[in-house]
Amino acid sequence: MTGNLTSDTAHRMINDGQLNVTDLFRHAGISHPVMQELRAMAMRRAEAKPDLFTHPKPRTDGASDNLRHKAATAGAGVDPMEIVSREIKLHSLPRVIIELQRAIDNPASSAEDLARIISLDPGLSVYLLRIANSALYSFPSRIDTVSRAVALLGTRQVSVLALGVSVLKSYNQRPVQLLNMEHFWRHSIACAILARAIAARSGRKDGERYFVAGLLHDLGRLAIFEAIPDMAREVLELAEAEHLQVVQAERKVLGFDHARLGAILLRKWNFPLNLALAVLHHHEPSRGEPRGEAAVVHLADILSKALGYGGTPVFFVQPLDSGVWESLGLAAEDLAGLEADLDARFDETLAMLGW
């Protein structure tokens, strides 16, 4: 179970993992049967895979004494649009994506048109062919060309995947202060896999748009940590000192949160509105369409954290938005199936997307 670890080290990691699970569910509440089962699953998982639940905490170095004052005053000087402008300049989408967006918006465009545009970018083509040949689809024969991938997956599905992958590639090329980028993308990829699996189990089509929504749901957090690292540090320190969810600390320190910032960024890049809304409302899906993508991403985000994939040094499982579980039409028994879906696809998807 624990490889070459000594017995004492293994027991310490297991105990630390279980303690972290207790802390992990501090804000979640366990009145809902689903959260009760999810907490029990997390405890079992912490015993089997303790390393997933032992994330290093940020160092505060005594800087938290004045955090309440900082939280009350700092956010007034932060303009989210300045961050958006900076990120758009720093991470301008490649020309092939701009051409792809134009083709998507043109009713006269064909599958062959989209395949030709995607093929202009060898890196993007490789990513999409990896995805098409992965366990996410399990096609009976190998997909060797972009045109065949487009024909099998559909133009809309491939275009959404291409947009998501282009953002992933852009941010993979730049380190971000304070964030362990491997942990960040492991959380994002876990959320993407789970969002697609939840969509499938709840009878939804176009699983790729849920996959990409899960993949990019925390894009705004990357932008915050990259653009204003000092204030991002204050966010983490406040979350650690006051046991807040990071999204709550963002609102206190910055005056806005990563969900809002990510949604603005996606719209500025001309991503589909439904994708931006999924990002905007993934912490509060009741503010959006009751059965929209945000509900799926909300649940996927909760599950990924509960199963040990947290994207920041401080993270908690958030409460399940009332009505989300019922609106998706899932049963408690589906939780084990979703965990199995994640474990079956995680390593391959991680490697497929460059991690």
UniProtKB/TrEMBL annotation:
Signal peptide: none
HDOD domain ranges (all copies): 90-285
Cited InterPro entries: HD/PDEase_dom, HDIG_dom, HDOD, RNase_Y/CdgJ
CDD domains, alphabetized: HDc
Highest taxon of the lineage: Bacteria
Pfam families in the cross-refs: HDOD
Protein name stated in the entry: Putative domain HDIG-containing protein
